[in-house]
TrEMBL record:
It is found in: Cell membrane. The chain crosses the membrane at residues 21-41, 61-81, 93-112, 136-152, 164-182, 194-211, 223-240, 252-272, 284-304, 324-345. Pfam families: Acyl_transf_3 (PF01757). Its main location: membrane. Residues 21-336 form the Acyltransferase domain. One of its GO terms (cellular component) is plasma membrane. This is Acyltransferase. One of its GO terms (biological process) is enterobacterial common antigen biosynthetic process. Keywords: Acyltransferase, Cell membrane, Membrane, Transferase, Transmembrane, Transmembrane helix. PANTHER family: O-ACETYLTRANSFERASE WECH. Belongs to the acyltransferase 3 family.
Length: 381
């Protein structure tokens, strides 16, 4: 192992030496609130009914711009946290799949009980196969990526500092900067809705952790850069609309846009730099952070997404700009908290049913079979 590798190891473990980083957990919570905000604005029908060029239009798009890096942050956190983990714990992805399946069943039952949709056996099978049908694009992408993470971690742990910076650079150039400038998805990232994009973000998050970048930055500067980079997209869109360049204008408002990616990294660094020591906020963060994925699954479930959220908030367009901001923020928080409560009830039920111990038992049995029959007890997975 090189001297650079040793330095990287020392930087990465220091985060654990002082306990759990609640700044990262807080960022996880904030990013999910931002994701809900995106859905209130888009699926809720607000953006599509506002007149172009009005103050309310710019206000709504400002909220959109500020929230757009949320999905990137969530994936970056996966790499930041996951890179220092040991072998993959496959029971976790099994538990997540059971969680998603649970909500798929509930959503399907509600659809049929409310007669919102007529029964169709083929459609029923599709509704109960969320990964195969890509019902939740993020979970499908994450599900696939999860099985690659042991390899990603081995790769990142084997690189010295210069190689890691090189990896960070080529990902940024070919997956973000180049597609943004030339408006060409040369890596087939599907505008960021893909397993490949999440995997690249995982690697970037791991690089941030292993390089110890969060130790060298000024937190306030990172937050300021986040605002500058995200709002730059909205300003550019506005200028492009005035010049009748709508396609170009939207180019800085996508998941893979270089300004949005850099803004995401800035918030990750700010979150990692944040130290929360007071017990009251720590308790709140500790309670809410494990619920965030459930918030995503619940409010994007078929029934809620298509029959509750769709067009539900278009009437916000009649409000003044300041009231619109308050209404969107309050609605996003209300949805987040309501879904968190539902997810807490689900977790309580699963704890009573001992679902996690059951999935751990399944993993152990599967590992024993694989070790004896296939891997011959080779380590690393």
């Amino acid at each position: 192992m090189t001297t650079e590798s040793v330095c990287l190891e020392n930087r990465s473990v220091s985060l654990h030496e002082h306990g759990r980083n609640y700044g990262i957990d807080l960022l996880r919570i904030l990013s999910m609130i931002m994701i809900v905000t995106l859905h209130v604005l888009r699926q809720g029908g607000i953006l599509e009914v506002l007149d172009t060029g009005t103050v309310k239009y710019f206000t709504a798009w400002t909220l959109e711009s500020l929230s757009l890096c949320a999905v990137n942050i969530y994936a970056l956190i996966s790499g930041f946290v996951g890179v220092s983990s040991g072998s993959a714990r496959f029971y976790k992805i099994l538990s997540m799949w059971i969680q998603v399946e649970f909500y798929c069943i509930i959503s399907t039952v509600i659809l049929y009980c409310t007669k919102t949709d007529t029964f169709d056996f083929a459609e029923l099978i599709n509704r109960l196969a969320p990964v195969s049908t890509n019902r939740y694009w993020y979970f499908t992408a994450y599900f696939i990526m999860f099985f690659f993470t042991p390899v990603f971690n081995k790769l990142l742990q084997s690189l010295h500092e210069r190689q890691m910076k090189y990896l960070f650079g080529i990902i940024f150039i070919f997956a973000s900067l180049w597609p943004t400038v030339w408006q060409t998805d040369i890596m087939k990232l599907n505008n960021g809705y893909s397993f490949l994009w999440l995997s690249l973000l995982y690697l970037l998050g791991g690089c941030v952790r292993k390089l110890g970048l969060y130790k060298r930055v000024n937190k306030r500067l990172m937050v300021a850069l986040y605002f500058i980079l995200t709002l730059a997209g909205m300003v550019f869109m506005t200028a492009a609309e005035e010049l009748d360049w709508p396609v170009i204008g939207n180019n800085l408002l996508s998941y893979y846009a270089f300004n949005i990616l850099l803004a995401s990294v800035c918030l990750l660094l700010a979150g990692a730099k944040t130290k929360i020591k007071r017990q009251a906020p720590v308790n709140i963060i500790r309670a809410l952070a494990p619920l965030t994925f459930g918030v995503y699954i619940i409010h994007t479930s078929e029934y809620i997404w298509d029959h509750v959220l769709k067009g539900a908030f278009g009437f916000f367009s009649s409000m003044s700009a300041p009231v619109l901001v308050l209404a969107v923020t309050a609605t996003a928080l209300a949805i987040y908290l309501a879904c968190s409560l539902i997810e807490w009830l689900r977790m309580t039920l699963f704890k009573w049913l001992k679902v996690d111990p059951f999935t751990e038992w399944i993993e152990q049995k599967a590992r024993n079979v694989l070790d004896q029959k296939i891997f011959k007890k080779e380590s690393g997975i």
